[in-house]
Structure formats: structure tokens, C-alpha cells
Amino acid sequence: MAVSLLAEALVRWQHAAGPFWPYVCAAPFLATGEDGLLARRARTDGFRRPARHGHAMADRLLTAARMDDPADRPTVLLADLPPEPILAAAPSLVERGWYVVPVVQRWIASPAVLPCRPLMQRLVVGAWRARRPTSPRGAVLIADGERTGPVGYPATVHGRAFDNRYEYQICRFPSTDFLRAHGVERIAWITGGARATERPVRPDLAPYLEDLLRAGLAADVLPWPHL
Amino acid sequence: MATPVRVQGLRPGVGAVRALIEDPARITPARYRRFWRRAQLDARIPDLMVRGEPYLALNALVLPDADRRCLERLTAIFSRVFHRAGRRVAADVATTIALGFPWAAAELLAREPRRVPLIGRFDFVQDATGDWRLLEFNADTPSGVREGVVCDRLVAELLPEARGLVRPGADLGPRLTEAVLGALTGKAASGTLGIVTTASELEDLSQMAFTADLLRPALAEHGWDVVLGDAGNLRLTRAGLSLLGRRIDALYRYLPFEAIFGTPTFVAIEEAAALGAVEILNGLYGLLLQNKGLIAWIWAHRDEPGLFDDEARAAIAEHLPATWPIADLPPDRSRAGLVAKQVFGREGQEVFFGEDCSADLWSALTRRRTYVAQERVRVAQTRAVVQSSLGPELRDGYAAVGCFAVNGQFAGCYTRFGDKITTARSKWLATFAAPERQDG
Fold first, then answer.
1. For residue B362, how many other CB atoms are within 10 A of its CB?
2. Domain chopping of chain A, boundaries
3. Which of A21, A107, A174 lies nearest to residue B199, judging by beta carbons?
4. pLDDT band for position B265 (cuts 50, 70, 90)
5. B393: contact with A, CB 8 A cutoff
6. Of A146, B120, B228, B358, which is the most exposed, with the fewest CB atoms less than 10 Å away?
7. Distance from CA of A219 to the nearest CA of B (A)
8. In the predicted model, is pLDDT for residue B148 greater than 80?
9. Is the ipTM of this complex over 0.90?
């Protein structure tokens, strides 16, 4: 039962992502056994809470990305931030014309270094609220800004916690051919990386930024304003 | 030099190897999306992209039946060839050091049990004359099992064109399970198998998650559990080796040895093995069999009747491209007809076509002494529909057919289609074979 619930959630996100559907990462939706039950509980808990549209977060994100003009050409916004708040803002982003594409590669396990339950709650509950925009103006790619784990967490994990920290391969993100074919000429890239080595973008995604620039696409790396 | 012996059954058929689909219109967006989703969910493949481009093609390479039989026989014969060569070389520390093994690894290898790998993969290409040539043996941590077990089946189910064709790898899953079960239950009545990988590499992690799921039901029936963890979750304790806090009795390592050599993970594995606290299912011996220097060694010893039987010598002579340590090249060999390969290289890394190398680069590779030079195979070109992020496309390319050997016997295929070097950017194709009666 848990697997089919997750499978349906994945398909719903893919459907809502429109032409960006192949870039919805399936990793969190492949949990099985006890880890799959975690997702089922997450869904139950999530539906008990009132639905929020995340207008404030969507405002903040689009302002940070300097994308408040609906007349802009198709654009991609890559949000390399903690994923749950951005996922919560998905309904509002869709209302404003954005495909929402979770590119979260976190492996679901319990116990684990990166917590899974809040993320699964957002992904599973969000799947049933995911829609396509009626007048698309671009896509928000939600990367997992917490993928390297908490600052200061030891490199080696003791005990039973599954070490699910990771880095992205740039394979995970749309190719420049794909972006051009969909009329995308500008990428707004918002990163919340606080460490000096994570500026302007996190090291694992730096080759992707290089690819975009090499292909002649405009990429604006923008800070995430701390409130 | 002994005259090569022609062995019946080692000649490919008269029919041509072909792609199942050559019309891009056959791969509609809806059909490809169905395939994609089922691959994600049934094979647990979360990451179907290579540099933002789809990796799986909803298509297949179709082998004439005689070619399938040829590859099956070659797989079994070359399993024997590599095992015989490996047993001879593993005992000789000086030779393994010459093949690039650090001294400590060479010493450990000399003490290790030498058994045919539970699973390995021979990568063959078909040359322009129709002969199959062996390029390398992935004996350490071969990939592609989930594609061979699940994706081949999905392509057969989703494409009407596949009706009437056979899947050479239809039994890959059960055969692998049976082999692992045999290795485990031969040692203990019950226990826990640990599968260790690099969890931060999604591709590796998901491959092993699939393998763990594949093995779990059959192993459970025999009192064995399976636990999957990251290398960082592995510990040597007083009770033995533990993974995620669970004591493990056997270990399958999906980590390149050369990447962990000298690390705490490596030390923990080797100490536990030396104490008899854990059974290593794939030790250093597989890395030796995979080392391309061993191919050069086999080529140098190809005429030794005491080492290889007639059938093996015939297979080497006809199906293994001539290979030498790069520093020992015969003087009449020009680099234009050669390919330089790093002895431990994986996935097409550190492969250089002589025709693309400057004299300086070739000299630099020669000085490194960790390369072999292999006669270049002029691979037959194939035309196939593959998937790009913009849709299906008809492309000309080269197919490399990986043949899985489980306990030394053919068990299935893993075909990739791409440029002249098979790399991670190549596209996957299913592998089918025509039934015997359709072979002209």
C-alpha cells in the first residue's frame, strides 16, 4: 500500500511538472518497507493540518529572483534552499504561472542523517495538491538545499543512522538543449549556502552553472535574503 | 605459435544485428512516459538522466539466434580463461604489482580464495566482419542488473515489435539470486548479508537497493536477511563487522576497491575477513580479473596449452583483440590502429584512441606504465532510435553488448549504444534475440 501511494504521488508531481516532468527526481518516492510506512504516516499527519498556499514564501522567492513581471520570457528558477518551505509554496507558485519541479534526491530512511519525515509530508501531501499552471511562464526547480547535512555534522556516522547526505550530479538538471528548445534564455539561481565554499553556488552544482554560461544562457546567481 | 582451432558454435550468424525500432514515430511521448515510470518504480531507477538527457531508450538490439548462441558460449569460455589466468597471476605478487596493484593489496590478493565471480560482465562488440570481439571484463562491481532484469521485460511488454523475440536475460534475476544463496548457505545456515555502497551516489545506491530487494525474499526463506548501507556505516566491532549497527556475516561490496584502498572502510573489511568474521562475496580477485593488464597477460600466454585448452585458445585468437602492456608494444604497431586503456579504468574513463592522440600524449601514456594498448576494433555501425530530452531520434552509433556471467555461465545482457567509446553518456538498449527458426 505504501509503495502505491508513493508511486501515485510521483506520477502526480510528474504530471504537474508539464514538459519538465523527467526532472522530478523519483528517489524519495521509491522508499519501501518500513521507510515506505514513514511516507504513509507523513501523508496522514499532513492532511490533518489545514492547507496553506504559501503566498508569503512564493512572494519572497519571486522577489528574490526578480521575477515579478509576468511578461518576462520563459524562465527557470533554481531554488537551492531547504525544500520543505518551497514545496509548501507550490500552490501559490502554480497560481502565478510556474511549473513546480521537485528535484529532491534525498534517500528515505529511518533513522537517517538527513531527516525524512517533514520532507515526505510535503512531497506526499503536496502531490495531491499539485497542478499545472494555466498560463505557464516558466519552472521552479526545487533542489535540496539541505543535502550536505547540518554544519559541523561529523563526516563519519556512528550508530544506526543511514548516511543519506549527498551531492548532485549535474545529470539531474535540464540540459541546455532542453532549456533552449523550451525558449528558456534566463535562469535565476537562488542559493542559501552559508559557507564560504558554497558561494556563489554550491560546489556540486558549479559545473551546471558553467554549462549554462557556456551555452550562452543568462544565469543570475542571487542571494536568499535572510529575514 | 600454435594454429588457432576453430570451435563450432563460435561463429556468428548470417543475419544482421539490428535495432528493433528504426522509426522515431513509433515511440510516442505517452508510450515513452509509460516506460519511464515503470522503469522508475519497478526497477527503482530514480536517476534516468545523464547530463540532463534520458539514458534509457525504449528500443532493443536484436541478435540473430546464432549470435546469441555465440555470445553465450564466449561468455562461458572467457569466464574459464580469465579464471585460469587469474589463479596463476594472483599467486604471483610481483606480477600483480606490475599490473598496478599496491604492494599491500597484492599481498592480500595472494592470500584470498580465488573463485569465479558470482557476477561479472563481459563487454563485446561486433566488428565490421560480423565477429564478436571482447573488449573488457567487468568483474569487480558490474552494473546493469536492474536494467537486465526489469527494463528488458518492460521493453518487451511495451513494444508490439518485440513479439516473437526471446529475452536472453529472462532468468538473470533468479540466476543471480540462486548464486548468492549458494555462496551464503554454503557457509552458514542463517545470517545477515550486508550490501555496502556509496550512498551519496544515487546511481550506485539505487542499483544496490534494487539488488537488495531482488535477493531479500529468497534469502529470507533460508534464514538470511539483507541490510543495505553506506561505506561510512560499516564498523569493525568485537562482535565482527557491523553495518548500520547490525552484525553482518557476509558482505557484497559495491564500492570500487581502488577508491577505498587504505581507508577505514577497507581496513575494517580486510581485518574482519582475516579474522574469519565475515565472508566477502567479491574480494580483490574480481578487481584482478577486471584489470586490463590481465588481458595483456592472457594475450601474451595465449598459446600455452598447459594453461588454456583448445577451445579457450581458439576463443582468444579469434575474439580477443591483441593487447600489450603499452611499453611492450611490438615495433611494427602504429598507434593509429590502437586504443590505450588505463588498467583500472572504468566506464570508458581513461581510454584514448591512438588516432586521436598526439605523439606527446601517447609517449606520456607509455611513460605512466599503467596503460595497455589494445588493437582497435572497427565496430559495426547500427542505426537505432534513442531518446533525447527533445524526443525520440534516429541515430547511427555503436553497440556494446555486455554479457552477464553468473558463476561463470551466461545469464543475460546489458547493451549500450553510443559513440566509439562506451561511456556513461551512451544510451541503454534492451537485448533480444530472434528465435532459431527466423535465422535465414
1. 18
2. 2-150+158-223
3. A107
4. confident
5. no
6. B358
7. 17
8. yes
9. no
